From TrEMBL:
Residues 131-182, 194-223 are annotated as: Disordered. GO terms for biological process: exocyst localization; exocytosis. GO terms for molecular function: SNARE binding. Residues 172-182 have a biased composition (Basic and acidic residues). Residues 131-143 have a biased composition (Low complexity). InterPro entries: EXOC3/Sec6 (IPR010326), EXOC3/Sec6_C (IPR042532). Belongs to the SEC6 family. It comes from Betta splendens (Siamese fighting fish). Transmembrane segments: none annotated. Residues 159-171 have a biased composition (Polar residues). Gene3D superfamilies: Exocyst complex component Sec6, C-terminal domain. This is Exocyst complex component 3-like protein 4 isoform X1. GO terms for cellular component: exocyst.
Length: 840
């Protein structure tokens, strides 16, 4: 065979250009070897014969031509064919069977990108594209004359290129000459616009004109691309099937090399042959039919696998062949000799596999290497989804007929594959931030303008169902897992709060922080911020998750008061009666009060959980206040016991200590926030008054020799000081009168005036009984006699006058007050009774 590329001559426009073989190959680009294109020559023309063809009976000659140049997979260089519009380069082939066809190289995907540019540049030309360029050495490439690839059986060979001798220019028709001249002018114009002209032309260019020209060309290019992007026609004409199909090995070879249409035509021919033989089946040919059916099944399986690989690789050079094969097989579905099942479903499955492979290629780091591994992966996954769908919408869909609904199939595939992928990610996600990222991406981001709502996918995406195909209860399980992890993290955070309080406060014995006049701790704001952050972030996903987050946080927070109290007692039990011990209690009463108030904001969302937390805080505050009260009671107890004694009457040291302790705790009350400050101050006020007055009932001392007047004055003054200590904090103003009423009875100079001053005491304190009055009179020194009797009689009258009115339990002072009975049984007997006991 003669080398068709040696000293090849090219005709561009109307000019012949001689180039040797090496120079020609240098100017040709080998950037697209995967297109599997072959080349041959006819005279001075170089034609591109593609492997994408369905020519009945032409395989021998065309394959021979391709085999010869297969080792040199070259493409047309743009400079060589830029002047040729669509349709001007064709190959006319006459096979040994006498069949004639024309192959247009511009139908190949490798020339489409160039075609869009060249056609836009040639649109404004006046070139007539009605006729084809005729070869000066043979028939026109566009005519139905003899093919330049005549079979050796016809006794003709390719034209032998002449070495070392230039080709003479052939005579051309006038129309062809004018057309060639027009092409030359247009080619020169194109070279100038592309910056390929001479230096002289370049130097004369102007920036403004070049810019304007570039903008126009870009606009025309976009219009041309839109024009080219038209869906493949739904209907088609199946080429004539070969009279005799190729062998199984040959068909398999065609499938392997990517000649799918040709392989499919032979498969259909083989299938028809099988069906005819099956109808005429004789008993002795059953084995032969079974063998042929098996061969068909294997070949169809190989063809389907090849189609699957093409779809998976998203190859753009063969989708048209794939689509026609699938259409044809769907139409013949159920006929003998074919595969079971739907080819369209197999195609959709391949699309899903392609999407799955694309998802698998998205980078996924290990959590040990990147704490935000899942958020990063989901971001890249969303970007990959958009890019895949953009490719399907803008490029892939035009290679299939409308019935394939390529874009819809890709959207559906992404729905399924992404749903399965999210399930796998859920198994790996354990941290709260990862679970949050997964929930947010699944519920919000996937349907947002960042992915499925992207502007680049409009308007096609509007009519598609973009909901992810997730397993049943997947979202509910993911939300539960998220809330459980939130609860665990909050528990760990609260443990950290207690640990930090120990390190910063308890361990060093540092006093609490003072905010305005109140003692406070920093942890309530930290806890509230942590809870609020969880709730707010959950609310960004959806309202249901927000409610679940509030419930989870409050349930975990319910255990916090007891855990805090237990650790506080364990760490600070050695502080005892130190002042800082009381300050800690007050600061924690204030702190938990503030924390409870913060949580009250969620009462409308989770009222039950808020109420449970409120109870826990309430009982903690009650216990803290009881500790403070016990500390106060223990502190003043020894000084109260020495009231109303002989030492008390002559020495004020014990009262000074009592007042000092009372005043200190009164200051503590001022550092406590409402509403607990009132209750705490009332308890202290009530206790100190009751215990002070109770010393009068103990019968520890009886004033004699007019000492009762001094005692009365002292009671009045001391009770006034105690009242002043609680003036700003206590609400028990009804206790203020008891000191004045009792001091008057004790300090009156005349005994007869006592009965006239009993009414205020009986009126203000209905629980004041006869035994209490006897104890007060005993302290005054009035234990018997006529005046004593008169006083008791008057008291009885006042109580009868008061009647059986119910006593206000909120104003009870004397009811449970202990009264010491005078064990001296002879002290109240008249002297006349004692004479009988004396000896004679």
């Amino acid at each position: 065979m003669i080398d068709p590329l040696s000293n090849a001559a090219l005709r561009v426009g109307g000019t012949w250009h001689r180039e040797n073989r090496s120079c020609l190959l240098t100017r040709m680009s080998a950037s697209n070897p995967s297109s599997r294109a072959g080349y041959c020559t006819s005279g001075a023309f170089i034609y591109w014969i593609t492997r994408r063809r369905s020519v009945s009976g032409s395989q021998d000659k065309l394959l021979a031509a391709f085999t010869y140049v297969q080792n040199r997979p070259v493409c047309f260089h743009q400079d060589l064919i830029s002047a040729f519009p669509r349709g001007l380069v064709q190959v006319t082939v006459r096979t040994k069977h006498g069949q004639v066809t024309r192959v247009n190289p511009f139908e190949c995907s490798g020339a489409r990108s160039w075609l869009a540019r060249s056609r836009s540049n040639l649109r404004r030309s006046e070139v007539s594209c009605s006729s084809l360029v005729s070869s000066p050495l043979g028939p026109s490439a566009g005519s139905w004359a003899s093919s330049p690839l005549k079979s050796t059986e016809d006794g003709e060979a390719s034209v032998t290129p002449q070495k070392n001798r230039p080709l003479t220019q052939a005579k051309t028709e006038p129309d062809v000459s004018r057309f060639s001249e027009s092409l030359l002018k247009r080619g020169e114009s194109l070279r100038n616009s592309l910056g390929l002209g001479s230096k002289k032309v370049k130097n004369k260019g102007h920036v403004h004109s070049v810019t304007q020209s570039s903008l126009e060309e870009e606009k025309e290019e976009k219009e041309e691309q839109e024009e080219v992007r038209q869906e493949m026609e739904e209907t088609y004409t199946l080429p004539e099937l070969p009279h005799t199909p190729l062998s199984v090995m040959q068909i398999n070879k065609l499938i392997e090399t990517g000649l799918l249409e040709e392989a499919h035509l032979n498969l259909l021919a083989m299938r028809q042959e099988f069906q005819r033989e099956r109808e005429q089946c004789a008993e002795d040919s059953t084995m032969e039919l079974a063998k042929k059916e098996k061969d068909l099944s294997l070949l169809y399986g190989e063809l389907q696998s090849k189609i699957r690989s093409i779809v998976l690789e998203c190859r753009k050079d063969l989708p048209g062949s794939v689509a026609r094969i699938i259409q044809e097989e769907e139409a013949r579905r159920g006929e003998p000799g074919g595969l079971q099942g739907s080819w369209m479903e197999a195609w959709r499955a391949a699309v899903r596999e392609g999407v799955q492979a694309a998802v698998g290629r998205v980078p996924l780091e290990q959590s040990e290497h990147n704490p935000s591994w899942l958020a990063v992966h989901l971001g890249l996954l969303g970007k990959a989804v958009v890019e895949d769908l953009e490719n399907a919408r803008q490029a892939l869909r035009w290679s299939y007929p409308p019935s394939f609904k390529v874009f819809s199939a890709c959207v559906e595939a992404h729905r399924q594959v992404i749903g399965q992928h999210l399930k796998e990610l859920e198994r790996r996600a354990t941290e709260l931030r990862d679970l949050y990222a997964l929930l947010d991406w699944t519920i919000n981001t996937y349907k947002s303008e960042r992915i499925m709502g992207s502007v680049s996918l409009q308007p096609d995406i509007k009519d598609e169902n973009t909901e992810l195909r997730l397993e049943e209860n997947f979202l509910q399980q993911l939300k539960d897992k998220y809330c459980c992890r939130m609860k665990v993290d909050l528990g760990a955070f609260l443990d950290g709060v207690i640990k930090l309080e120990h390190e910063d406060v308890w361990q060093s014995g540092a006093p609490p922080t003072k905010e305005e006049t109140y003692l406070v701790s920093k942890f309530p704001m930290d806890v509230w911020t942590a809870v609020k952050s969880n709730v707010v972030n959950s609310g960004k996903i959806d309202a249901q998750l927000e409610q679940k987050a509030v419930s989870a946080c409050l349930k975990e927070l319910k255990q916090f008061p007891k855990r805090f109290e237990a650790e506080f007692k364990r760490r600070c039990s050695t502080l005892g009666r130190q002042r800082v011990w009381a300050e800690y209690h007050i600061s924690y009463i204030n702190s938990f009060t503030a924390l409870q108030q913060h949580m009250e904001g969620y009462c409308s969302v989770c009222p039950l959980e808020v109420e449970e937390f409120r109870k826990e805080v309430k009982w903690l505050i009650v216990r803290l206040m009881e500790v403070l009260e016990d500390q106060f009671k223990e502190g003043v107890k020894p000084y109260l016991r020495r009231m109303m004694t002989r030492k008390w009457l002559t020495n004020d040291d014990d009262f000074k200590e009592l007042y000092s302790q009372t005043d200190l705790f009164s200051q503590h009350c001022a550092a406590m926030r409402p509403p607990h400050v009132q209750a705490f101050a009332d308890h202290l006020h009530y206790h100190v008054v009751r215990e002070y007055v109770g010393q009068l009932m103990k019968n520890n001392y009886s004033c004699k020799n007019r000492k009762h007047e001094k005692a009365g004055d002292k009671i009045r003054v001391q009770m006034g000081k105690l009242e002043a200590a609680f003036e700003d904090t206590s609400t028990l103003t009804w206790l203020h009168q008891v000191g004045a009423d009792l001091s008057k009875i004790v300090g009156l100079k005349n005994k007869t005036d006592i009965k006239n001053n009993l009414e205020p005491l009986v009126r203000n304190y209905p629980d004041f009984r006869k035994k209490h009055l006897v104890a007060v009179l005993n302290f005054r020194g009035l234990v018997r006699g006529r005046e004593h009797h008169a006083i008791m009689q008057r008291f009885t009258e006042l109580k009868k006058k008061q009647g059986s009115e119910s006593i206000d339990k909120s104003r009870v002072l004397f009811q449970d007050m202990d009264v010491t009975v005078n064990t001296d049984c002879l002290s109240n007997l008249p002297f006349s009774c004692l004479r009988n006991l004396l000896p004679d």
